[in-house]
Specification:
With about 140 residues, the chain is an alpha+beta fold. The protein has three helices and six strands. Helix 1 packs across helix 2.
Length: about 140
Amino acid sequence: MKKVSVSWSGDRCFDGVDSKGMPVDIDGHQKLGAKPSELLPIALCACSAVDVVEELRKSKGELLGLEVEASFTQAIRHPWPFQKIHLHYVVTGDGITVDDVDEAIRLSLEERCSVAATIRASVKLESSFELRQPEHPRMQL
């Protein structure tokens, strides 16, 4: 069994540690670290991004960049559960197709991302993407 932890460091601040000992700064006031509840959409972005990168590396094109942004809504009453998370992917690649990106995102959100698998029964997950060409494409010889 893996373990993660948080230690209170004063006020609403905590020092988080992942299962490999990597630090995570957490702050309920969002001055010195991430807001605890926002770590969930951050984790979803990161989990899916890893999957998408791995899948796009298998394509015939060259992946040059990936950004994933999460927009979300929460209930208006305590405990403010997440209701919807929309992931928007911005992929920069040379020779990567719209179909490549669409399939990579689908595989991630439906089959591979453990965070998505954990929350999709109670949180509506949506996605969109942009495929950008590099500013300086590879030269064809």
